[in-house]
Amino acid sequence: MTTIYSSATEMAQALSKKDISSVELTKLHLDRIEAVDGKVHAFLHVDSQGAIAQATAVDAKRAAGEKLSPLAGVPLALKDILAQKGVPTTAGSKILQGWRPPYDSTVVAKLKAAGVVILGKTNMDEFAMGSSTENSAYGTTQNPWDLTRTPGGSSGGSAAAVAAFQAPLAIGTDTGGSIRQPAALTGIVGVKPTYGGVSRYGVVAYSSSLDQVGPFARTVLDTALLHEAIAGHDERDSTSINAPVPQVVAAAKKLDVKGMKIGVIKELGGTGFQAGVSQRFNEALELLVAGGAQIVEVSCPNFEYALAAYYLIAPSEASSNLARFDSMRYGLRVGDDGSKGAEEVMSITREAGFGKEVKRRIILGTYALSSGYYDAYYGSAQKVRTLVKQDFEKAFAQVDVLVSPVTPTTAFKIGEKSNDPVAMYLSDIATIPVNMAGIGGMSLPVGLAPEDGLPVGMQIMAPVMQDDRFYRVGGALEAALLSKWGKPLLSNIPELGGM
Amino acid sequence: MTLDYAGATTKYEPTLGLEVHVELNTKSKMFCGCATEFGAEPNSQTCPVCLGLPGALPVVNAKAIESSILIGLALNCSIAPYSRFARKNYFYPDMPKNFQTSQFDEPICVNGYLDVEIQTDEGQKVFRVEIERVHMEEDTGKSLHVGGATGRIHGAEYSLLDYNRAGIPLVEIVTRIVPGTGKYAPQVARAYVTELRDILRSLGVSDVKMEQGSLRCDANVSLAPIGSGKLGTRSETKNVNSLRSVERAVSGEIERQANRLEAGERIIQETRHFLEESGQTRPGRSKEQAEDYRYFPEPDLVPVTPDAKWIEELRTRIPEKPSVRRKRLQTQWNCPDKEMESLVNAELLGVVEETIKLGAEPTRARTWWLGEISRLANEKEVAPTSLITSKDVAEIIALIVGGDLTDKLARQVVEGVISGEGSASSVIEKRGLKVVSDDSALMTAIEAAIAAQPDTAERIRGGNIPAAGALIGAVMKATGGAADAAKVRELLLKHLGQG
After folding, report:
1. Active site residue A320
2. Which residue, among A78, A100, A326, would best test binding to B if mutated, counting the most B CBs under 10 Å from its CB?
3. How far is CA A202 from CA A173, A234, A275, in A?
4. What is the DSSP string of A366-393?
5. Is the Cβ of B301 closer than 8 Å to some Cβ of chain A?
6. Are residues B54 and B166 in the same domain?
7. Can you say how many angstroms the Cα of residue A441 is from the centroid of all Cα atoms in its chain?
8. What is the pTM of this model?
């Protein structure tokens, strides 16, 4: 029987066999959201009416015998950073309060065309700046594994929604780890595709050269199906790659790593990594070896500069991307009492509308781009970026994929790092190099850390537009882990009540 | 004591620098598909991209790149095999993104020149104006300040914003400093802008209408004592909306600066606005504290890398330089300077050339277009070329030369064509406007005239030939102008024994 605990693939099969209708399936999830989101707070906006309408339309098409996409009728949670026509889109910021986009982002248009039912918009760190959702202007999302902990971020709402069975699929964005880190901290699968693999059109920009949209799901195959539904060239995004989408679904079904060379990045492990994280990571490596893969240690010496360079490039681009939020055309307007000029109203609105971390990064970026500092900061950071890319190129010359833990620790307590930005930034130390190089990476759950019983993720990385490689490794490892555990990792998640 | 212009240029050496902004006449905007029509309903030509809505992304208009390359080639520039857009960051309500996407340190065309010829005390002289760069950018929206006395932002009650112009492709053509013009600086400036305008028009890349703002000129002027070998502090004069204003703005600025220097004051580096009525400039925004635009490469766009073969193809499309063409045509037509100037100013060179190509005799072609047709066009306040085709004019001229039409009849034909009665031949047929060349019909009219004025006839018989005028006039009147006056004269004199 199909339940909210089924995989998206199982749901899709049940839908196609007409064992369940999309309206029924959608209602199951809306009920679940109703029951548990008071505790999790994964959603900022639940679009019940819109979701039921979409589901009804898919059911009608199916009844009429129309040919439907693989995921038609399956529900999904959408990060609140993607424009969806007529549906509130805030990017987790007060400054966009009340804005309803007059257009669909390309990803939303593709999801709609594929008949995927969009349940609502999920919580996130404001403008995707953060690693815990604590920077959201609309409250923190709780990790369904332990409600006193964060689900990670910035796409924490999407990850929590999938882990808490509020949606089998979700969309996130990843600028420095914002899909992979929350996927790791909530025990689900998350993928940051190759930069340019998925259109950014309609995604509220944080750092244009690093932002990438990607899928969340509870299994590798589900993730691949969603990946295929949203990927592909888009002429409205100049940076989107005009090449065929990697065969990720086929790769996820392969379940075989025999003869593959897997590189372990020396610099991303050991000191600074929680013992249980390293332990589960190493056990997963053993499973890969047992599956016939060869493990090689590789060195990426320039990764140690990646974090610092990231915190120059991303804020620099953000300082410019966020300039448009000036109250003139949309969103919040504060202080317009008729006595003030436009410039003053802009200033008051931005003061009131942006949160602390956003202001921090705008100031950081403005400074880094200033004349006299540009070369030392933005210029040097771009050089580091080139070096990181070269490190990856050299490593991929030796191996098929690279692996590392996704995060140094398991999910941290809400409030634990919110007053220490650098400690917070460090939680993305292993994921940032992937964005800097524009390649893709997957976060795969590989167990629970013995010391705290919280999920641990393995990051699997592949060269540009070779995303199928990490789906292949991920699929095979997932199968090996499942047979080792006898049940899915998420079956260990505490019951949230409600159902 | 104040210096007049002659005094100023006896003491000081002016140095020029000219920045010309050209609105390209592409059908769509620089980075989106919106229409570019002038004068449309405010904000009717906008979309998420040119309104800078969150998530929207730019895509470069290929036609704009083509136009920019054509301009570069016509100005003898090198075309960069790799150029990029940058973001110029500053806040202004009519700029939707609060940054302008513009080429900065990597422009599409560099290192060109334009030779301009002016009349000096020593005869015609050629000045070479070196072009530093030709780069692409987008226009901003327009602010309309309501409620103030002058339409300026100060004192206005509120402002209206029209984003139709936001994103219109602009090309900026920047000269190097032009030294050594001496007192001819104003004429060189005017000749340069004129020649540039003619080139742009011949390329068909812009409407080049200064009064509509599709060609805008900023004139940089600085002064240094003659022989000092130094460069003075420059001012930049904006709002120069006609060719005549270019000349007046430069001479006015030379005079103003010279008098400041004479008074021992220093020149402030600033933007000044040209005042059409007085020919003076008034200070605008001071540039003492140079604004920091925090330029950085536009991450949402990919570099512009035109194919070398394509550039060569475009090179073959560069038409003959307008000044060269003018000289060639003037020689071919044996046309006086004054008349040539009138043809150029009236923008009739092309149509006259066409008319002549269709077989019309050059002098008549010029006279008809500059005379009768221009007169009628002035009355109707339209362009002469919108009234009648070169084919009709050529046909009419052929009929005049062949004796089938008199000038008077021809004017009626022109009038008929203009009032929409059809082509020249059909007007002639409908109105029956052919010259009466039938001798017997003319003789009847002559005899009637003699019978009416027997005394005059008697005087002619007596040898008073000039008296024939009165009888000829009567005959012409009787035939409604349809007779050839020379023929009437010949027949009349013969009839009265004076032939």
Report:
1. no
2. A326
3. 12, 12, 41
4. HHHHSTTTTIIIIIHHHHHHHHHHHHHH
5. yes
6. yes
7. 11
8. 0.88
Q: Examine the domain organization and report whether B150 and B227 are in the same domain.
A: yes
Digit-by-digit pLDDT tens for chain A (499 residues) are: 899 999 999 999 999 999 999 999 999 999 999 999 999 999 999 999 999 999 999 999 999 999 999 999 999 999 999 999 999 999 999 999 999 999 999 999 999 999 999 999 999 999 999 999 999 999 999 999 999 999 999 999 999 999 999 999 999 999 999 999 999 999 999 999 999 999 999 999 999 999 999 999 999 999 999 999 999 999 999 999 999 999 999 999 999 999 999 999 999 998 889 999 999 999 999 999 999 999 999 999 999 999 999 999 999 999 999 999 999 999 999 999 988 888 999 999 999 999 999 999 999 999 999 999 999 999 999 999 999 999 999 999 999 999 999 999 999 999 999 888 888 888 899 999 999 999 999 999 999 999 999 999 999 999 999 999 999 999 999 999 999 999 999 999 998 865 4
Cβ-based contacts of B58 with chain A (< 8 Å): 238
| Chain B interface disruption, residue of A90, A171, A236, A362, most B CBs within 10 A | A236
Same domain, B46 and B115: yes
Reference A79, options A28, A124, A14, A127; nearest CA is: A124
B332 shares a domain with B460: no
Report the sign of the C-alpha dihedral through residues B19, B25, B26, B30, in that order: positive
How many CB pairs (< 8 A) connect A and B? Answer: 101
Domain that holds residue A248: 8-303+385-492
Domain that includes residue B467, residue range: 439-495
Same-domain pairing of B46 and B171: yes
Structural domain total, chain A: 1
Q: Does residue B316 belong to any structural domain of this protein? A: no
Indicate the pairing of strand A75-79 with strand A117-122. Answer: parallel
Q: Flag whether residue B59 sits within 8 Å of chain A, measured between CB atoms.
A: yes
Write the CATH number for A101: 3.90.1300.10
Domain membership of residue B12 (yes or no) is yes
Among A96, A103, A370, beta carbon nearest to B294: A370
Number of domains in chain B: 3
By the CB < 8 Å criterion, does B60 face chain A?
A: yes
The alpha carbon of residue A336 and the mean position of all alpha carbons in its chain are separated, in whole angstroms, by: 37
Residue that terminates a domain, selected from B260, B278, B311: B311
The domain boundary residue, chosen from B311, B345, B363: B311
* Spatial CA neighbour of A385 closest among A318, A311, A328: A311
Task: State how far the alpha carbon of B89 is from the alpha carbons of A318, B48, B60, in Å.
Answer: 12, 19, 19
ipTM of the complex: 0.95
Residues paired with B224 in a beta bridge: B13
Which is the catalytic residue, given A105, A136, A154, A418? A154
A415 to chain B nearest CA, in Å? 30
CB contact under 8 A, A326 and B99: no
